[in-house]
Design goal:
By secondary structure, this protein is of the alpha+beta class. The chain has 12 helices and 11 strands. Helix 1 runs antiparallel to helix 4 and helix 3 packs antiparallel against helix 8.
Length: 505
């Protein structure tokens, strides 16, 4: 049952009838800014709370996120300053426009509380993802960094520091599995810091700036810089790799460095990157997101080149005088060749970042063993010609996986995610594909006869030669041009619910 939720932090019974305008218990207004009604609380912290609300001024009353910030100050001058800072920082956030950052829809003050209204994202945060699906491997972490770092680069270009990067503030959007960065600490921390500097120990300073374990030393000292987000991103990687909060790792008594190296099995090259991200000393940390992206590009090349081309280049650069006459011939040629090969390898690495990667060499037995122990995320894996007949694979994740010729006969794949997967000639006959996500998949010559695709998403999928005879395509996201390339018959139910296949084209 939908309720009207009171946002007064001191209200002993915040749940109200959905038609009320005033809280039955405490008398507080249930309509914020004469526009928003809160229906559910998502979470709370020292500086405020987060709710789900509805916008009463728009048709169909769309859902939104209502963030309440509570500047618990008694001094009128302090409140005036807090209000000014809130408006300034909110205006800064209002300028941010990125497809992987929720839109700021509104901001206002209501009954001495500050509010941000943001776009609601349907998805699961990475903290919950790890608890449900298990920890990441090195490959998954690299893909994570390659997607999230450009978002951080963008917000830094807008002169904004996130200040609260952590797994709970990164969502994986349900509709396309893209990472979404939420819950900027910029507003609350800027208000907190400025008030503390102006008024000393106020009621605000008892609240942490950032999250313990994820925030670096300079941020905890209320002096965040852009590379503070890089540290928090490194700490997030630690959690994704281990399922363990960074604050639970021991620290070096002299340097303050987190001691994590013995608990994670990763390559030496990636260990070097993570160590630099987590440097307590800002002089030793990556200063920009660009520096981190460059390191991610070059890291896979280091080991191979260190014993080969790079050593060859070094030898060419440090010659005895007796060899100087040969520089323009053999040695210089080798140096130029090595440099060209290095540039080519870096370019290939960049292209590889956008292609399908393979991390584990599975066979039928190892897959079934992982399946039986509850693993659900098989992103980026090579599973060609596997037999998934009659398996319950609902809500599984096969993003970017290789599944050519695999058999899914009579399987339950409802609400599973195949984004970008290669499913050429896969067999889905009579499978349950209700609300399954096939965006950008390669389904060329796939056999989907009799499958239930109701509500599935086939946006930009390659359907050339796919057999949709007898399929239920009701409410499927698919274009007419896509359907023209498929095989259909009188038993095919189309997106409009009809079977008028001869009138479709």
């Amino acid at each position: 049952m939908i309720i009207s939720y009171c946002v007064n932090p001191d209200c002993p019974n915040p749940k109200n009838h959905p038609k009320l305008k005033k809280c039955y218990t405490c008398g507080s207004s249930l309509i914020l800014n004469q526009r928003y009604r809160v229906i559910k609380r998502l979470g709370k912290g020292g500086f405020g709370a987060t709710f789900v609300g509805v916008d009463l001024t728009i048709a169909d009353n769309p859902l939104c996120v209502v963030k309440q910030l509570r500047p618990a100050v008694d001094d009128p001058q302090a409140f005036k300053m807090a209000l000014s800072l809130f408006k300034r920082e909110a205006k800064t956030l209002d300028k941010i426009s990125h497809p992987q950052i929720p839109k700021l829809l509104n901001y206002f003050v209501h009954e001495n509380q500050f509010y941000l209204i943001q776009e609601l994202i349907n998805g699961q945060n990475l903290q919950r993802e790890v608890k449900n699906n298990g920890v990441y491997g090195e490959f998954a972490i690299k893909r994570f960094l390659e997607e999230i770092t450009p978002i951080i680069k963008y917000i830094h270009s807008q002169k904004v520091i996130h200040r609260d990067l952590k797994p709970a503030n990164i969502l994986r959007r349900k509709k396309d599995s893209k990472l979404i960065l939420i819950d900027f600490g910029a507003v609350k921390d800027q208000v907190n810091t400025q008030l503390a500097q102006t008024y000393g120990q106020t009621a605000l300073t008892k609240f942490a700036v950032g999250t313990t374990g994820y925030a670096p030393p300079e941020q905890m000292a209320m002096r965040p810089i852009f590379s503070s987000d890089i540290y928090a991103l490194g700490a997030t990687c630690l959690y994704l790799l281990t399922g363990k909060s960074p604050k639970k790792f021991e620290r070096h008594p002299d340097t303050g460095e987190l001691l994590w190296q013995t608990e994670i099995n990763i390559s030496s090259g990636f260990k070097k990157i993570l160590t630099k991200m987590l440097a307590p000393d800002t002089r030793e940390r990556y200063k920009t997101a660009d520096e981190l992206l460059t390191a991610l590009d070059i890291a896979p090349l280091e080991q191979g080149f260190s014993r080969g081309i790079i050593n060859q280049t070094k030898q060419s650069m440090f010659l005895d005088e007796s060899d100087s006459d040969d520089i323009t011939n053999s040695q210089l040629s080798d140096t130029l060749s090595a440099t060209a090969q290095l540039k080519k390898a870096i370019k290939q690495r960049k292209e590889q970042r956008r292609s399908n990667f393979i991390t584990i060499k599975w066979n039928q037995d190892t897959f079934l063993s992982a399946y039986q122990t509850g693993k659900k995320d098989f992103s980026d894996q090579e599973l060609n010609n596997f037999d998934f007949t009659e398996l319950k694979l609902n809500k599984f994740i096969f993003r970017y996986s290789q599944l050519k010729g695999s058999v899914f006969k009579n399987s339950n794949l409802s609400q599973s995610n195949f984004y970008g997967a290669d499913l050429q000639e896969a067999n889905f006959t009579n499978a349950n594909l209700f609300q399954t996500y096939f965006a950008k998949c390669n389904l060329q010559n796939a056999d989907l006869r009799g499958a239930n695709l109701q509500g599935a998403d086939l946006t930009n999928a390659n359907l050339k030669g796919a057999n949709l005879c007898g399929c239920n395509l009701k409410n499927v996201k698919v274009s007419q041009s896509q359907l023209k390339e498929t095989k259909i018959n009188w038993a095919t139910t189309f997106p409009d619910g009809g079977r008028r296949w001869w009138k479709m084209f």
